[in-house]
């Protein structure tokens, strides 16, 4: 399953065709950065729940956001988002990507299966290695709260929240990690439009989050300064 989609948010066939043609148009128009296009074959081979345009956003933010510090992804799964972030950080000459996951499974996948799922840890390691980014990613096998307990206080430049999608988990992720963002840092919350709990937990932390807000499909971005022009331009794509 390459770059597949979450069931339950999959658009109907006609809407999907319209969406696909708009996205193809967007690619033809050259809105995707060359650095991303060059890496697409690697990303396409990794299993995950991401649209191509989500990966462009991860890549661009990791590459373009100003400031110093680490990139942290909460919820690694098999490394699809991690690899996009690692390519961005590499192309922008930024600091390492950290990613954290207990590898116990995604909420929607667990609810669909109704039983424990196999760990995604070995596939994450293999995908990072095959993508050639193992040296620029630190993968933690832990719950995000547990990693926070032993974190050395290093500042973050970019926080991507995509771990357990409950009110309490998202609240805890934001309350723990957002204060570590350095000047110019940004937070991207995945599944804001898919889970009311994610939306509510995020909105309830509004005072803590960077002041400016932008939509990126079903994700929400919170940022401090004017976004780099490449990012602003890309966020204007027809998301569907
Ligand atoms: C939607 S998947 C992540 C997808 C990944 N970010 C990507 O872009 O491909 C959610 C992941 O969160 C992980 N997870 C569950 N509870 C967690 C927790 N407390 N801390 C961090 N990750 C958690 C699950 O094991 C699952 O792999």
Describe the structure.
The chain has 240 residues and is an alpha/beta fold. The chain has a single domain (13-235), classed as Vaccinia Virus protein VP39 (Rossmann fold), CATH 3.40.50.150. It is built from 10 helices and 7 strands. It has helices at 13-28, 34-44, 52-64, 80-92, 107-113, 121-130, 144-150, 167-177, 196-204, 229-235; strands at residues 70-74, 97-100, 137-140, 156-161, 181-189, 212-216, 219-223. It has a 7-stranded mixed sheet with strand order 3-2-1-4-5-7-6, sandwiched between helices. The longest helix has 16 residues, at 13-28. Mean pLDDT is 90; it is low at 1-12. Bound molecules: S-adenosylmethionine.
Which helices and strands appear, and what pairs or packs with what?
Layout: H1 13-28, H2 34-44, H3 52-64, E1 70-74, H4 80-92, E2 97-100, H5 107-113, H6 121-130, E3 137-140, H7 144-150, E4 156-161, H8 167-177, E5 181-189, H9 196-204, E6 212-216, E7 219-223, H10 229-235
Parallel strand pairs: 1-2, 1-4, 2-3, 4-5
Antiparallel strand pairs: 5-7, 6-7
Helix pairs in contact: 2-4, 3-4, 3-10, 8-9
The protein binds S-adenosylmethionine.
Low-confidence stretches: 1-12
Beta strand %: 15-25%
Domain module tally = 1
CATH class: Alpha Beta
Q: Which term fits the overall shape?
A: globular
Gyration radius from CA atoms, angstroms = 17 Å
CATH topology: Rossmann fold
Ligands: S-adenosylmethionine
List SSEs in N-to-C order. HHHEHEHHEHEHEHEEH
What is the CATH architecture annotation?
3-Layer(aba) Sandwich
State the separation between the terminal residues, measured CA to CA.
Answer: 22 Å
Helicity, as a percent range: 40-55%
- How are strands sequenced across the largest beta sheet? 3-2-1-4-5-7-6
Number of strands: 7
Determine the number of helices (DSSP H or I, runs of at least 4 residues).
10
Mean pLDDT: 90
Main beta-sheet annotation: 7 strands, mixed
By secondary-structure content and strand pairing, the structural class works out as alpha/beta
CATH superfamily, by name, is Vaccinia Virus protein VP39
């Amino acid at each position: 399953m390459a770059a597949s989609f979450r069931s339950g948010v999959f658009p109907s066939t006609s809407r999907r065709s319209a969406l696909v043609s708009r996205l193809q148009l967007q690619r033809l128009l050259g809105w995707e950065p060359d650095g991303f296009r060059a890496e697409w074959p690697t990303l396409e081979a990794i299993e995950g729940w991401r649209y191509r345009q989500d990966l462009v956003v991860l890549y661009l933010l990791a590459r373009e956001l100003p400031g110093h510090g680490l990139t942290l992804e909460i919820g690694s799964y098999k490394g699809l988002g991690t690899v996009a972030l690692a390519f961005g950080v590499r192309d922008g000459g930024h600091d390492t990507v950290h990613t954290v996951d207990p590898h116990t499974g995604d909420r929607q996948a667990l609810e669909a299966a109704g039983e424990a799922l196999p760990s995604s840890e070995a596939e994450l390691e293999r995908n990072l290695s095959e993508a050639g980014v193992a040296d620029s990613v630190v993968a933690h096998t832990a719950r995000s709260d547990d990693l926070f307990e032993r974190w050395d206080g290093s500042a973050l430049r970019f926080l991507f929240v995509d771990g357990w999608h409950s009110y309490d988990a998202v609240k805890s992720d934001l309350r723990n990690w957002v204060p570590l963002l350095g000047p110019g840092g940004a937070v991207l919350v995945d599944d804001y439009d898919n889970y009311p709990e994610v939306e509510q937990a995020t909105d309830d932390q509004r005072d803590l989050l960077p002041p400016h807000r932008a939509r990126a499909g079903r994700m929400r971005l919170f940022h401090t300064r004017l976004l780099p022009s490449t990012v602003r331009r890309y966020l204007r794509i027809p998301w569907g």
